[in-house]
Amino acid sequence: MELLLNHPKAKTFKITALMRDESKARKLQSIGVSTVIGSLDDSAILEQQASNADVIIHTVCPPYLSADADRKLNHMLVIGRCR
Predict the structure, then answer these.
(1) DSSP-assigned states of every residue in the chain
(2) Angstrom distance (rounded) from CA 42 to CA 38
(3) DSSP SS3 for 20
(4) Closest CA to 60 of 77, 44, 80
(5) Helices and strands in the chain, H and E counts
(6) Per-block average pLDDT, block size 10, for the chain (83 residues)?
């Protein structure tokens, strides 16, 4: 995250993070990161956010994921698009 926020073209990026905890989300918001409250088990949120993304970076430890969420997330990593 730090590398993205400090990138020379950072002002051209819109960074959005999926967060489970609102207090942690507020910390990211304070440094210019948009947040969405939800979990990796919410396929509607994942699909909506992925459809608006050029790049998806997955940083969650695998033990958190249910088998279904892991399958959906891996599919979304493949369909991430660049404009």
Answers:
(1) -HHHHTSTTGGG---EEEES-HHHHHHHHTTT-EEEE--TT-HHHHHHHHHT-S-------GGGS-HHHHHHHHHHHHH----
(2) 7
(3) coil
(4) 77
(5) 4, 2
(6) 85 88 91 89 90 83 58 46 39
> Which DSSP helix (H) or strand (E) runs through 19?
strand 16-19
Task: Report residue 79 as tokens.
Answer: 């369909």
Other CB atoms within 10 Å distance of the CB of residue 2: 7
User: What's the pTM?
Assistant: 0.67
Instruction: Please give the Cα distance from 10 to 22 (Å, whole number).
Output: 24
